Amino acid sequence: MKRAFILIIIFFATAIPSFAAEPKILNYDLKNKTVEVEIEGKEYTLDLPIEDVEPSVETLHATSQEKEKDPALSGSVKKKKEYAKGPPVTTVGSRLYNIPTDNLLKKKGFGFDFTHRFANPIDSTTSEDVYGLDGFAYTGIGLYYGLTNKLEAHAFRSSLTDASELGLKYQVFKEAKHFGDGAPFGLTVSSGFQTDNIQNSIDPYVQGIFSKVVIPGWLKVYLVPSYSNKSATIASGNSKSASFFTFTDPKHRGYKRTAGTFALPIGASLKILPNGRLSVFGEYTPVLSGYKEVKNGWAFGLQILSRLETHVWTIGVSNVPYSTFGQYIVGGPSNNFHFGFDIAARIK
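User: That's the sequence. What structure does it adopt?
Assistant: Structure tokens below.
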């Protein structure tokens, strides 16, 4: 009995320490790989040989979600820039009707446009030839390629004066969505060379394309100061296209081979349906100095966006028969109304 009592005493003496309070972690130093703990009122510092482990995808995702929910944790996260957006139709194609826009293709993107300007004016025709639609038309076709996300190249060919054009367009900066977060307007520069059968030389043009979203998603305006060298196009008897011209210069001005043109085109696109598929546009191109035809250029009409937002059809009325970026700024031979249309597509 005495022996059994002694065994019971020894059992309790050894069991009581196993129910002692668990160690309390006071501090964990990841850099030095140490941990400070408190055991029964006494503090100890222990070394922990921890291996470096790459965080898992799940951990990174969870951390990013926590930072989005907690503004205090997201201070080190770079905020994604947001840019202003006009009517959806302004995201496809390189021109409003004649005026160039700031829209660019993405890197390795491909697009084209087709222009069609009827030569016979509406007010000098009858319903028998569908108000000029049965007459001759000046056509043009252009190909566009995105060299980078900010740089685009194009080649364009017009049947009027057999003009050929090569050019580049570079986006300097885009308009910020919110005031104070970036640029208050967008700026894109466009420049290139063109040749035709009037000048028989390679002549440069340069344009600054300023854009501003006035009403987000609804209204966007453009201001495009432009200069084109040797821009005189009419009153040249040796033009291969002269036999198709339905206009002459009533001022009977002499042909100035070296004349250039500086103009200030302005244009706007306004969405008129909530779904963004239909917009109206307007253009006006005052010639400030240099060569000018009889009247300043103008155009107005409708823009229709395809359901997949890859094509835009532009139907308009204008007094300008030209469609190259270097030629249209000279204006028109009269203020007569001429039907016309454009088709622009983004293939990739």
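The chain is about 10% helix and 40% strand.
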